[in-house]
Amino acid sequence: MAQFTPPPAPNEVEAFIGKVITDLSATFSGVLVNVGRKLGLYQAMADLGACTSAGLAEATGIRERYVREWLANQAAGGYVAYDSEKQTYALPPAQAMVLALDKSPVFMAPAFDVAASFWLDENQIVDTFRSGHGLGWHAHNHRLFCGTESFFRTGYRAHLVGEWLPALDGVVERLKRGALVADIGCGHGASTIIMAQAFPNSSFIGLDYHDASIATARKRASEQGLTDNIAFEIKAANEFEGRDFDLICFMDCLHDLGDPVGALASSRKALKSDGKVLLVEPNAGDRLEENLNPIGRMYYAASAMACTPNSLSQQVGLGLGAQAGEERLRKVAREAGFSNLRRAAQTPVNLILELTP
What we know:
Blueprint: H1 10-38, H2 41-48, H3 53-60, H4 64-76, E1 81-83, E2 88-90, H5 93-99, H6 111-120, H7 122-131, H8 142-164, H9 171-177, E3 180-184, H10 190-198, E4 203-208, H11 211-223, E5 230-234, E6 245-251, H12 260-270, E7 271-282, H13 294-312, H14 326-335, E8 340-346, E9 350-356
């Protein structure tokens, strides 16, 4: 006998419709954040202060009718402030830090390029879910690579040299003297370049299996005038050549790997006896209910679209996911042969672990 399920109360339906409308509003508007960033609208507003749609149009060379509609959307979402008496718009300081100032420690606008790539990859992901097969990082739309680089660079620039490396026992002193460092899964090289700039006496090698990303990383390093202490190589996470590394970094990438245990085991063998691994991962609780929040929602989406499919496309295919949690990460590290594991630092979005043999 079928179990009777009572119909939802009208207020429950209305409440959920409201939630969906809020999500649709954010989804529809996300593309306009990209539009504003790429056309320099946010930057112009930060420079101008309070302005009319005509003033912003004149400053940017964009047709006023488009600017007016864009501003209305941004005001409705609270991304810009509207003064109804003066009929002017302004980008408040907090919004400017997040949307306009690319050197800000909380610049987040490039993340919308990642979201754009997910929509462009929708058909591939539908096929991937149906087949149960994986989808490699290299198979995604190129906007995923550029958006990830820009978004992660904000966090690395804000925390890597000033907080995360100093939290590792004795590492900064070694880097100042001269150390050998590998940056695994370096992508476009944002973290590698930041470290190489900060520690000119040390040598840095960025490794990534994606040839196009390595080509971009080399270009980025050249643009920064870095030639003497940095190199990039097309190699998988476990392809070390017997070098004695002082530090091996996994920056937001271990959970993407098909065989994270094997990658960590290879890195342990490549370390000096007193070397260390810096493991930076998304900050997550060990239980699902601890991650049922906006940050968890964002990371689970990224995990479903990119991280887990990439892992399942490779050998072993462990599929850690972007919200693995500290205990699961510790288990992987122990299986790889690391006996000493310490939480060195954390941010609201990142967990930083120090691993030693």
